[in-house]
Amino acid sequence: SVTAAEVTAMGAWRTLSVGDRVGALVFNDFEIREIPPHRSRQRVMQILETLLEMNHALRVDGDIQPDPAMLNRVLGKVLQLAKHDYLVSIISDFSGTDEETRRAVTRLAAHNDVIALFIYDPLEARLPSFGKVIVSQGDLQLEVDTGDGQFRNRFSEQFDTGLKTARDLMLKRSIPVLPIHTVGPVREQFMELLGHGPMHMKRRK
Length: 205
Hints:
Layout: H1 2-17, E1 22-27, E2 32-38, H2 41-56, H3 70-81, E3 87-92, H4 99-111, E4 113-120, H5 122-125, E5 132-137, E6 140-145, H6 149-171, E7 177-181, H7 186-193, H8 198-204
Parallel strand pairs: 3-4, 4-7
Antiparallel strand pairs: 1-2, 5-6
């Protein structure tokens, strides 16, 4: 959630700096907040304050039930707002992607520019061997053995499948997908993905 907020902040300030209006639909598993587009610093600050407030509401001991359907509900609202010639940035872990998501994204991309920013934790991609650990979600706890190689492989395969599903969904509609992980500086990741990072500089040399 913190990385998603940083990505949103960078995009919002950049949009304002080139003289365009900026708005947002900020959501979690139980709430969607609509912030209509406007060309002002105050509107960007409103978006950031909403992100901060919703991030603070996320607690490990909270009683929040996951709702993967929220992504599709948000996309439905975006379809009502972004009729033509918008730049739509979807910043999400894409949990809940399904056939309804495909239809919504197809309709969005028909008349707008769409970019997908896939937020992920590297632990989801490659789970280290920590031995036996306790994982929790609210009041639920489960002991898992991360030393089990088969378990780690299944864990990684599940993540790879999710990423491939999101990428296939977007790329088939010529929508760029930028994977952003949670452990590195967001700005540097953007530079690397857009071909301006240190590795690309070395290759040119």
